Amino acid sequence: MATMPYLHFQGRCAEALAFYAEVLGGTDLALMRYAESPDARPEWKDAPHVMHGQVRLGDGVLMASDFPPGMEGDPQKAVSIMQTFPDPDSTRAAFDRLREGGDVIQPFGPTFFSRGFGMLRDRFGTHWILSAEPEGGTMSRDEVEEPEAHPT
């Protein structure tokens, strides 16, 4: 299992991650736009917003995204804790416990990128993103496809 911070931006995720990579010596910058998602809504077609981005910083990975196009959020308050689990059952068990007294943001279930995924705010106000690792464990860097460059 891995735990890491997950930052949220209002349309500036690509710019922010590129800046952090430059300043902090990051490598392996990867971005996936909302428009590239197989579940993309028609209004997201031309949006440059990042659905998921990450950059390797030393031994860790900083992950981030933009709020979906058309959704407002306050990046100053938008930090989540990303926790991965080896399988959907352990992910679901943690999700169910953390949601007690909290609020579900994204109901738990399979997605095109995870066998089990959910987002919530726990009873203490902490935002969590929980995800099951891909079948067979964590993907290597060689398995992650680099998306085409998009203007920011």
Summarize the structure.
InterPro entries: Glyas_Bleomycin-R_OHBP_Dase (IPR029068), PhnB-like (IPR028973). 15% of the residues lie in helices and 36% in strands.
Provide an overview of this structure:
This protein is α+β, with helices and mostly antiparallel strands and 152 residues long. The protein folds into two domains: 10-67, 2,3-Dihydroxybiphenyl 1,2-Dioxygenase, domain 1, CATH 3.10.180.10; 78-142, Signal recognition particle alu RNA binding heterodimer, srp9/1 (2-Layer Sandwich), CATH 3.30.720. The chain contains two helices and eight strands. A hairpin with a 7-residue loop joins strand 6 and strand 7. The longest helix is centred in the N-terminal third of the chain and has 12 residues, at 13-24. Residues 138-152 have low confidence and may be disordered. Keywords: Methyltransferase, Transferase, Ubiquinone. Pfam families: 3-dmu-9_3-mt (PF06983).
Q: What is the count of distinct domains?
A: 2
Count all strands and give the number. Answer: 8
CA gyration radius, whole angstroms = 15 Å
According to CATH, the fold-level topology of the largest domain is: Signal recognition particle alu RNA binding heterodimer, srp9/1
- Structural class call reads alpha+beta
What is the distance, rounded to the nearest whole angstrom, between the alpha carbons of the first and last residues? 32 Å
CATH architecture of the largest domain: 2-Layer Sandwich
